Amino acid sequence: MVITYDNYKRGGLVSYEVDPYTIFPIKHGLYVEGYSFTHKSYRMFRINRIKDIKFTQFIVPRRGDYSFNERHKNSFGVFTGSESTNVKIRFSKRVAKYIEEPPWASRGEITKYSNGEILFEINTSYPQEVMWWTLEWGPEAEILEPDWLREEVLKTVRGMVEAYSKKKDNT
After folding, report:
1. Pairing with 55, which of 69, 87, 160, 162 sits 20 to 30 Å away (CA)?
2. Distances (CA, A) of 4 to 48, 52, 114, 119, 152
3. How far apart (Å, rounded) are the C-alpha atoms in residues 30 and 47?
């Protein structure tokens, strides 16, 4: 099938030829995953961003190398990647109890410190998604490793400071 997809990264509608394999819910969204002939790799698409579907005349057998569980085994949430990265995050005493609750506690390793802070470690195939989650905790969380992800946080926070420092335009 060919889908017309609202790709926010590309700034508009894009067509992809896709062989869909599975539909699944994650983080308040519904996704379809399958083989994208356009990308020549497995991809997932958020269903509400699919604006049109055209069925082709071709029936393609499912590729033998596809495994949903294998693709998502180190996924933090929605996104997948090819390599796993260890991410270490320090959480303050104030929010540590929330990180120690499911679902987070079952997703990574937690080390408790005598001052009430915790270290949360997780292996993930898409560390940027862990960064976005960490930013939700504001100053109560700090990514310690890897260094390149700390730099990404600094870049993001600087961009946020710049955006919030501009005078608000009410037009």
Report:
1. 69
2. 11, 5, 54, 43, 31
3. 6
**Location of structure tokens 């030829």:** 17
* pLDDT one-digit tens code per residue, 50-72: 999 998 887 777 778 888 778 77
**In sequence order, which residues have a C-beta less than 8 Å from that of residue 82 and are 6 or more positions away?**
125
For the stretch 4-57, pLDDT in tens is 999 988 889 999 999 998 898 887 889 999 999 999 988 989 999 999 999 888
User: How many contiguous H segments (helices) and E segments (strands) does the chain have?
Assistant: 5, 9
Alpha helices in 26-116 (DSSP H): 68-72, 93-99, 104-107
Structure tokens at 111: 């080390």
User: Does the pTM of the predicted model rise above 0.85?
Assistant: no
